[in-house]
Structures are given as structure tokens and as C-alpha cells.
Amino acid sequence: MSEFSFSDHSHRRFNPLTQTWVLCSPHRAKRPWLGQVEEAANEQRPAYDPQCYLCPGNRRATGAQNAQYSSTYVFPNDYAAVHAAQPDCTRAALAQVAGTQAIGELFRVESTLGQCKVLCFSPRHDLTLPELSVDEISAVVRAWQQIYTSLSEDPDIRYVQLFENKGAMMGCSNPHPHGQVWALSDVPSEPAKEIASLLAYRQAHAEPDACLLCSYVAAELANAHAPPTNRVVLQNDSFVVLVPFWAVWPFETMIVAKTHVANVSQLDTQQVRDLAAAMQALTIRYDNLFQCSFPYSMGLHQSPTATHPDAGCCHLHLHFYPPLLRSATVR
């Protein structure tokens, strides 16, 4: 029998951040494609769109008017996923949709509270993240810092999620460059898994500052010297962009802080600029890959809040999940 080949033989890879396994079938990339094909989106947009709800000075669907902003702009989401106040879900309310059998064991519901905000990256309607300058993206990171710090002071907020869905393919409802903020009363499942893994790794090692992602970054930087093991896309003084060993999507990447930083609020001036430069360089590569405005979902994973009891074991990193497989039209 021939030797095992990572290019030809199926296997599964362990994701230590979520304690899950990922099935890899590399040989299936050789099959002919007759599946879903999308139209390539190469629309030309104006710098200002009078019909856009996010452009400076325009009125939004609710009647609220945007400021005449010239950099970043933050406002409460008019169609928030969660709200700061609402009734609790009672047992009687749950019985209306779940029946009366096994309530509390098989049928469980908890009310979720929070705040949602929109962060416009730029007043320009026609630009996306890779088309912004490093200075302009630095302003976005500083806005993240301010939002994260402010919401962390709210005792009812236990998790601050900063993210961007780029492109209609990812469900983005407006092409104006923007991201979102969901500040929640509970930690979502995926970040909760990561935090549990980071905490378990620290407890399993003798060093009080042991960190799973610090160790992983060190290993991948060492691997980068040999082509067969290199998964590093780019790096600067503060951040490394890499394809995780356990990637699920073909062009999935992570941006990981090289030093142990728990959350975005802890970044100093140089680290802010380095993160902006890494985001710009990565998204430019995405756009150049298929000569299109490359869609993705991007989210910051960090300590749930600045005051979270397990904040010390958390390590700032960004996940990029792009849906495209082989070209601008195949996902």
C-alpha cells in the first residue's frame, strides 16, 4: 500500500480551539463541478448614494437622520437583533409553542437581552475594507476599542461581538462599508467553546501564563520556514495572518496577535496600526484572488468583556470565513 498523502487521502483534523474534528477529503477537489454557480458581482457604485440608509446626512428607514460624518460613524441598529429590555419567557409562554411535555429538559428557552450598533467604516459608499487606507482602517479599530470599552462597563452585557458580513452572498443588506456590534447578556456558543479550551490549556500546563494561541502562533511561525508546512499568509510586527491547520473553508484565515493580548481595547497605537495593515493586506489578497469584491464573514474573538473573569486566558484573534470555492461565481 502506498504512503499516506495529505493531498489524496481523507483524514480528520482536530481544532483545539473548539475541541472538534474537521473531516478533510482533499481528493474531492479534483471532481468536475456542475453545482451552484453565481453571477459575478462587479457593480460600480457612486461615492455617495442619496438612497443609501448609511451615507452621511441621509435619513434611515425609521426616519432618523445620519450625521454628516467624515470618518467612522456609530449609531444604534434600527432593526436590532436583541433589545435592552423585554419580558422574560415564562413557562406558560413556552408551553404555547412546545407543549407541556418535558419542558425544562427537552424544551428550553431563555430571553436574551443586549444592544446592537452599526459601525460605518467610511462615508464613501463605493469603498470596501481593502480599498481603505491603513489610516482609515486604523480609525475603524479605534472605534472598536471605544465601543468595546464602553459596553464592557455595562453590568448587563456579558459579551461584545464585533463583526462584518461583506457582500450580498453573506447576507449583507447594504453595500455601504460597515460592520456590526452585538452586545449580549450571554456568551454565544462558539466563543464559549474557545474560552473553555483556552482556560483548559492554561490549567493543563505548569506555566501560569500558558496560552493555546501563543503556542500555536509560535509553532506556525516555525513551520513557515518550510513550504510543505507553511500556512502563514503574511505577518508584521504585531500580527500574523494564517490558514488554520483545521480550516473548514477553502480560503478561511485567522489574524492572530503575536503577543498575548486579551481584547482589542489593550492594543497600543502601533498594534492598532499593525492590525489595520494586516486586515488591509489580507482583504486585498482576497479581492485579487478571483478579481472580484471578495465576500466573507469576519468576527473578532477576544475576552467577552474587559472585566470578564476569564479575560486573562483569552487571546485576540479574527476569523475570516469566505464562501467562494473555485472562482468569483462558485461557492
Strand content bin: 15-25%
For the termini, the CA-CA separation is 35 Å
Helix tally equals 5
> What are the low-pLDDT stretches, counting only 5+ consecutive residues below 50?
none
Structural class: alpha+beta
Mean pLDDT over all positions: 91
Strand arrangement across the biggest beta sheet? 3-4-6-5-10-11-9-8-7
Overall geometry: globular
Amount of helix: 10-25%
Helix and strand run: EEEHEHEEHHEEEHEE
Radius of gyration: 21 Å
Could you tell me the number of beta strands?
A: 11
The description of the largest β-sheet is: 9 strands, antiparallel
What would you say this structure looks like, in words?
The strands form two sheets. The chain has a nine-stranded antiparallel β-sheet with strand order 3-4-6-5-10-11-9-8-7, with helices on both faces. A two-stranded antiparallel ribbon has the order 1-2. The longest helix is centred in the last third of the chain and has 22 residues, at 269-290. The radius of gyration is 21 Å and the shape is globular. It has five helices and eleven strands. Strand 1 (11-15) and strand 2 form a beta hairpin. The mean pLDDT is 91. The two termini are 35 Å apart. With 331 residues, it is of the alpha+beta class. Helix content is 23%, strand content 18%.
